[in-house]
Design brief:
The chain has 14 helices and 4 strands. A hairpin with an 8-residue loop joins strand 2 and strand 3.
Length: about 475
């Protein structure tokens, strides 16, 4: 007779980290994952401070020091901000789907995914605040709310995003709120989709440029959010469960076991590539990536079909200098084709490195795509009077030559650093990652991860994938 599945035990990763740090301070040799943890946290803090310093320098000295201008007002910082915000929205969708189907492998990612989504949104909003020029005027947006503005509506969606994540984590940590988990899960599933749609409305409803103002930008941003979010969540899951190189209790590399770089290194977890959660996340990433590529193809065909947008489409895809290179090589080759092949190879060969590299390439391709779509469209001259050539003293009809400066790169990268640092702190304090079963029960049986959030009525022999 099948025995009921044991409940999942979650642990904060900070406990073994602090314990190992005290041992390190006492003269013991540190494990490799320990110093890597502190090194990554220190580098993230330095990058965040560098971005804040760059923002302060531009605010005091003037934004003429950046590569942007009156024709091109959204530069590389906005590309990073959009990528982080969309990735955060998509990560919460995937995490919330695990909450709604508590017996599936995705349920193990609900807690971790909620924190990763919030960290990504914090990083993206930090970049926007750094690039405002006048961050002290931010409270004005709360005092004068304009519901007709996509930017003003975004503030409402951002605040709701954090509130829903707080409720989701509260319902998971407090058994008294278990009855509301499904309702909160639906909120956490729908709200980020609305957020991604409203972000897309910034460009879809922008009538000033023929490269925007397309209804297809709504599903394009939603599909981008799902692809980027599933990629980040896959990376977070692999990192929390031990990405190579693996360190076992004997301190040697092992092929069959992988230990977490931030969990106690003596606890071995199952091969991450064959774990049901890893396989489900990789399949979702492949599905969302294919959907995003399909919507992007339809969007480009609509631009080529429209006489008003045909010139800007040719500029972005053929004769726009760096923009066609970034699109075909950065987005299509690096962001779609290579990840698809690596995901297929990862399933066949059962290697976590294939999944990790594929997820990273999807994010790099997303940066290239948003750079082409946001910056490239602005660089193309606006057709003030369709059918006529307009010339003047204000660079009318000329392509804007945009070269991002060091200050802009520091601001954009600081958002990634802030997101990474926020996730590290949260994962080190809150019980977000499933504890290996052997460590929980203190047995010498082969290590396995407990099935997450499974009710007692679920059979231990029931398939999970």
């Amino acid at each position: 007779m099948a025995q009921p599945t044991r409940p999942t035990h979650y642990q904060p990763l900070g406990s073994p980290i602090w314990q190992q740090t005290r041992q390190w301070a006492g003269g013991q040799a540190p494990a490799a994952p320990l110093w890597l943890f502190w090194l990554s946290a220190g580098l993230a803090a330095l990058a965040a401070l560098a971005g804040a310093a760059a923002a302060l320098h531009l605010a005091l000295s003037g934004h003429h020091l950046s590569g942007m201008g009156t024709q091109l007002v959204w530069g590389i910082p906005h590309v990073f901000a959009l990528t982080l915000i969309l990735a955060g929205a998509g990560a919460l969708v995937v995490a919330a789907s695990g909450q709604l189907t508590a017996t599936t492998p995705l349920a193990a990612t609900t807690r971790l995914g909620s924190i990763v989504a919030s960290a990504l949104l914090i990083g993206g909003l930090a970049v926007l605040v750094f690039d405002l020029g006048r961050p002290d005027q931010l409270p004005v947006t709360f005092q004068h709310f304009n519901p007709a503005s996509s930017f003003a509506r975004n503030i409402f969606f951002y605040l709701g995003f954090f509130a829903i994540v707080g409720l989701l984590l509260w319902s998971l940590l407090d058994p008294a709120l278990a009855r509301y988990r499904r309702l909160i899960g639906w909120l956490a599933l729908i709200w980020p989709l609305l957020l991604a749609t409203n972000v897309g409305s910034i460009f879809a409803l922008l009538a000033a440029h023929e490269g925007f103002r397309s209804g297809l930008l709504f599903p394009l941003f939603v599909s981008a959010a799902l692809a980027y979010g599933s990629a980040v969540l896959l990376l977070g899951w692999l990192a929390a469960n031990g990405l190579t190189p693996a360190v076992t209790a004997r301190g040697a590399n092992a092929r069959g076991t992988i230990s977490s770089p931030v969990m106690a290194p003596h606890v071995a977890t199952p091969p991450t590539a064959t774990h049901p959660t890893t396989k489900r996340l990789s399949r979702l990433l492949a599905l969302f990536l294919a959907a995003h590529a399909a919507v992007l193809l339809v969007h480009l065909l609509s631009l080529l079909y429209s006489p008003a947008a045909r010139d800007v489409a040719r500029f972005l895809l053929i004769d726009g200098g760096i923009y066609p290179v970034l699109f075909w090589f950065g987005m299509v080759a690096v962001g779609v084709i290579l990840p698809s092949l690596l995901l297929l190879a990862g399933v066949i060969r059962q290697r976590t490195s294939h999944f990790a590299v594929a997820a990273g390439l999807v994010l790099l391709g997303g940066l290239a795509h948003l750079f082409v779509m946001v910056v490239g469209v602005q660089a193309h001259p606006v057709a003030l009077i369709p059918g006529y050539e307009v010339t003047g003293a204000a660079f009318d009809g000329e392509v804007f030559s945009y070269q991002p400066t060091l200050w802009e790169w520091l601001i954009g990268l600081s958002g990634v650093a802030i997101a990474w640092l926020t996730a590290l702190v949260a994962v080190g304090v809150l019980p977000l990652t499933p504890r290996p079963a052997a460590a929980t029960r203190g047995s010498s049986a082969p290590d396995t991860l407990d099935t997450p959030d499974t009710p007692a009525s679920q059979s231990a022999t029931d398939p999970v994938d």
